[in-house]
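For this section, I looked closely at the sequence of one protein beside the tokens encoding its backbone, which the following lines show:
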Amino acid sequence: MSEHDDIVGDPRQVVTGGFAAVGRYAVIGHPVVHSQSPALHNAWFEDAGRNGHYVALDIAPADLVHRGPSLPFEYSGLNVTVPHKVAMLGHAKRIDGHAEAAGATNVLYRDEDQQWTAGNTDGRGFVAAVEEEMAESVMGKDVVILGAGGAARAIAAALVRGGTASVWIANRTLQNAERVSQAVGATGVAPLHAELLDILEVSVDLVVNTLPPEAEATVGSLDLTPLADHAVLIDINYYLRNRALLEIARKAGLMGLDGRGMFLWQAALSFEHWTGELPDLALGRRVLRME
């Protein structure tokens, strides 16, 4: 009898649910029908010659308390999107350092001891994508993040770890900004308004928008005059057709990045958690129509 449940072989394929869960992966959220994750991960599994199948699983918040405990018996690994990123921490056996710093999880995987573990690749995916696009490190950069939600916290935590010179959290509700800032060890907070960049104590290198679509009018009113020519503006809302921050960046002649790179990299790092290998990023870009 194997000490790893009822499966003998590659320990990365051992799952609590036995054969029923091997090779099964999903993204859970509500709603989740429009997710691009299934197309992306299924292309990667096929390319790698691995026995993997990935689906979108819609679970309403009220149903999570019943479904959460059964998920490790049904799946080898999961991605987690809104509104479950915080709640799923309570359904993990362990929480790794990235999820702890972010205060949320976007990936469930089995660690070296085969424990159902909550991780977070959002922040690391953001940093990897931005460094790739800029062809330089975020180390030493001065950054302002618009918003104080889960994505802002994950990104801020990763930027602090990455050695940025400063990370400021700008939000309409300063109490929420303070909460994020204290949790990740950011530099400070600022009220979100049109003159934000003029009142900060630094010359900002990166402006990162994590706010929901409802805040587009506020984001679009931001005065970019204080920014230097090398400044980069990033909007992680890749699903929006016309993003206000990128539009004002274009008009100001500044570099603007959408969130597809972050989405690609957070998915690739999830795939690495499940298989031990990074997938073909060029293939991922083709699937997401980034090339």
User: Anything to note?
Assistant: The chain has two domains: 11-120+263-287, 123-258. DSSP finds twelve helices and twelve strands in the chain. The longest strand covers residues 24-29. The two ends are 49 Å apart (CA to CA).
